[in-house]
């Protein structure tokens, strides 16, 4: 009743505004318009337009309203605000810790009921009547979904799902595309200090940084674009713990092994081997592209989703490798990139059940082989399904060639290298995600500060972790 009254009041105020100030634009027919929120920039939004047009062609009478409120945090804030007003979107970009904040609304859809549904559905919009032969994906489709990505979406990985009436096997999110972190490196500089291959372990990396600093005293050999990712990744590689879904023990990071690692990297910072995004004040890719002789980097660890920003231009040809590990048994690498969460009942629609089905058809379009291949080629994000790699054009792309078999150049080539470096069954086994709960995003924010404080010498590791633990609500 409260939601109904909210929507009614919003409608009344809108009507009053139209009467007082003149004609208003016709509002969307939300009964037949899928509202989609993403953080895509203009270039990727144009790619997504192709999926939207395909959806509209397949399902006449239905529209898609694609909005970009800003980055991921802006999408989060917009969805939370809309949930309060009962005008939530039908599908939105999300990170797991965002969804942990949505579950209590009772509007998050358990997509497991649609995932493999072989049922048909007939809809009518105006004078158009159409039958959808199969609501869900085929078994072959689902088998192609990369397990490490797909498994993230089950309710058992979130807190609060039981209170929302869901089971542990409810499917709360589906992966859209995924990024990870990659080691971008300057092969020309590496050869100048007598290395033919990039480091595979942190020990090797620090040795290379030492030689690079000796060769180019004004350079900073390594740039890391996310302090939080670095801490969280090392908590997996070194097994010192970060967070847990256990409501009685969410925060694990305040421990001696974490302090040792922070103290170790502070030493490397003191030697001039490292900078980070927060310390530098911008993405360190802008340093990487300068080259070490001009005070730039030799190595840059950043998202595969930002591959196009890592070009060495005329100075050098950027190469890409997986990030280093502690040893061959501890090579974990963080899994990132947007998933999709589905909501129901927004804008007081009269056909919520049917709209859920149609929203799922739009999600199927976004997860189709052809669109996944197209989006990956444009962005550097990895597809969420293995059969994309069987697509002939995509095979060529991964091998560094265009659809005509010609060699890729420039940023297209770097994106291709990123997709190749972040693919394959062996690499997928390296990927991990952190537990999602209300408060997990706070922990992530605190890890950014912890690394920054310790590197800059503003706090020692013990105090930085104790303060972060208190900020997260620990005692």
Give a structural overview:
The protein is built from 20 helices and 15 strands. With 475 residues, the chain is of the alpha/beta class. The chain has two domains: 2-20 and 29-176 and 337-367, D-Maltodextrin-Binding Protein, domain 2 (3-Layer(aba) Sandwich); 179-336 and 406-471, D-Maltodextrin-Binding Protein, domain 2 (3-Layer(aba) Sandwich). Strands 7, 8, 9, 10, 11, 12, 14 and 15 form an eight-stranded mixed beta sheet that branches. A five-stranded mixed beta sheet has the order 2-1-3-13-6. The chain has a two-stranded antiparallel sheet with strand order 4-5. It starts with a helix and ends with a helix. Residues 1-26 have low confidence and may be disordered.
* Assembly level: single chain
The largest sheet is:
8 strands, mixed
Distinct helical segment count = 20
The tally of beta strands, per DSSP, is 15
Terminal-residue CA separation: 40 Å
Can you identify the CATH superfamily of the largest domain?
Periplasmic binding protein-like II
Query: So what's the CATH class of the largest domain?
Result: Alpha Beta
CATH-defined topology of the largest domain? D-Maltodextrin-Binding Protein, domain 2
Overall average pLDDT: 92
What's the CATH architecture of the largest domain?
A: 3-Layer(aba) Sandwich
In short:
With 475 residues, this protein is α/β, with parallel strands linked by helices. The protein is built from 20 helices and 15 strands.
């Amino acid at each position: 009743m409260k939601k109904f009254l909210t929507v009614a009041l919003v409608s009344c105020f809108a009507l009053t505004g139209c009467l007082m100030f003149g004609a208003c634009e016709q509002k969307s027919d939300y009964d037949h318009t899928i509202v989609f929120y993403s953080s895509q920039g203009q270039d990727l939004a144009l790619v997504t337009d192709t999926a939207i047009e395909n959806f509209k062609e397949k399902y006449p009478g239905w529209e898609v309203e694609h909005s970009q409120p800003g980055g991921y945090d802006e999408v989060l804030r917009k969805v939370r605000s809309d949930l309060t007003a009962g005008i939530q979107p039908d599908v939105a970009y999300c990170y797991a810790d965002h969804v942990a904040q949505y579950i209590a609304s009772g509007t998050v859809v358990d997509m497991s009921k649609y995932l493999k549904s072989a049922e048909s559905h007939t809809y009518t919009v105006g004078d158009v009547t159409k039958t959808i032969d199969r609501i869900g994906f085929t078994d072959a489709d689902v088998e192609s979904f990369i397990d490490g990505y797909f498994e993230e979406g089950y309710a058992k990985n979130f807190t609060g799902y039981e209170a929302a009436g869901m089971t542990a096997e409810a499917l709360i999110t589906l992966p859209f595309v995924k990024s990870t972190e990659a080691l971008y490196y300057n092969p020309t500089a590496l050869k100048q200090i007598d290395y033919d291959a990039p480091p595979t372990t942190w020990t090797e990396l620090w040795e290379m940084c030492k030689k690079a600093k000796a060769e180019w005293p004004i350079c900073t050999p390594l740039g890391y674009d996310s302090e939080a990712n670095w801490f969280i990744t090392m908590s997996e590689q070194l097994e010192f713990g970060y967070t847990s879904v256990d409501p009685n023990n969410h925060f694990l990071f305040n421990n001696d092994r974490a302090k040792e690692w922070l103290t170790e990297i502070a030493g490397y910072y003191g030697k001039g081997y490292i900078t980070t995004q927060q310390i530098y004040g911008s993405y360190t890719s802008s340093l990487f592209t300068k080259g070490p002789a001009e005070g730039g980097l030799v190595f840059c660890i950043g998202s595969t989703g930002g591959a196009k920003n890592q070009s060495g231009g005329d100075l050098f040809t950027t190469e890409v490798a997986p990030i280093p590990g502690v040893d061959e048994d501890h090579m974990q690498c963080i899994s990132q990139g947007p998933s999709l969460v589905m909501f129901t009942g927004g804008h007081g629609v009269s056909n919520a059940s049917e709209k859920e089905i149609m929203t799922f058809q739009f999600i199927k379009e976004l997860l189709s082989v052809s669109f996944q291949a197209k989006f990956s080629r444009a962005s550097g994000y990895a597809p969420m399904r293995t059969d994309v790699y069987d697509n002939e054009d995509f095979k060529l792309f991964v091998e560094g060639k265009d659809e005509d078999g010609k060699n890729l150049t420039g940023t297209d080539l770097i994106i291709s290298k990123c997709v190749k470096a972040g693919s394959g069954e062996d690499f997928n086994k390296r990927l991990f995600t952190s537990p999602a709960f209300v408060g997990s995003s706070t922990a992530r924010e605190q890890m950014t500060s912890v690394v920054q404080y310790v590197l800059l010498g503003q706090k020692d590791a013990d105090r930085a972790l104790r303060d972060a633990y208190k900020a997260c609500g620990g005692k």
